UniProtKB/TrEMBL annotation:
It comes from Hibiscus syriacus (Rose of Sharon). Keywords: Glutamine amidotransferase. It holds the Pfam family SNO. This is Pyridoxal 5'-phosphate synthase subunit PDX2. The active site is at C28, H139, E141. GO terms for biological process: pyridoxal phosphate biosynthetic process; pyridoxine metabolic process. One of its GO terms (cellular component) is glutaminase complex.
């Protein structure tokens, strides 16, 4: 993604889009793109930035170490209803290691410690929000649970008039299309 964005000179437009306050949701590699800082990269991957966090690329391992797991999602459950947990699909997933003061942690994932060790269970951050930016290290689009999508749409529509032209409700688009066809 970064190589293509650089080759086609997309970074200035992507950065401007994020900086102008449009709603953006980055999943997996999209989260890495949005992060202000990334570690564990090959070379110096250029980032769009805007999300005050440090992310570790491929934190959970290679492609063959991809997995699905249940984790607690209190913000999602309180806003969208449904179960207190979400089954995430982690595909060569990154992890958020650190967040700035403006970043709200929406979910974390426990990393099991060695049972023979006295080291307490460690957690890594897997979902965050900073203003108009939403980021998940997992792939909600690969599940039947649409609560993250609903959360993002509500988040985007709650942002006020300055972004209203960027988000069009399906019913709105249909009625505009039908009106256009009648002319």
């Amino acid at each position: 993604m970064a190589k293509l964005a650089e080759f086609h000179n997309l970074f200035p437009a992507l950065r401007e889009f994020v900086q102008t306050g449009k709603p953006v949701w980055g999943t997996c590699a999209g989260l890495i793109f949005l992060a202000n800082k990334a570690v564990g990269q090959k070379g110096g991957q250029e980032l769009v930035g805007g999300l005050d966090c440090t992310v570790h690329r491929n934190y959970f391992g290679s492609q063959i170490q991809s997995f699905e797991a249940e984790f607690v999602v209190p913000e999602l459950a309180s806003k969208e209803g449904g179960p207190e947990t979400f089954r995430g699909v982690f595909i060569r997933a990154p992890a958020v290691l650190d967040v700035g003061p403006e970043v709200e942690v929406l979910a974390d994932y426990p990393i099991p410690s060695n049972k023979e060790s006295d080291v307490p269970e460690k957690k890594v951050i897997v979902a965050v929000r900073q203003g108009k930016l939403l980021a998940t290290v997992f792939h909600p689009e690969l599940t039947a649970d649409t609560r993250w999508h609903s959360y993002f749409l509500k988040m985007a529509s709650d942002l006020g008039e300055e972004t209203s032209n960027s988000v069009i409700a399906v019913g709105e688009a249909t009625s505009k299309f039908q009106t256009t066809n009648k002319i």
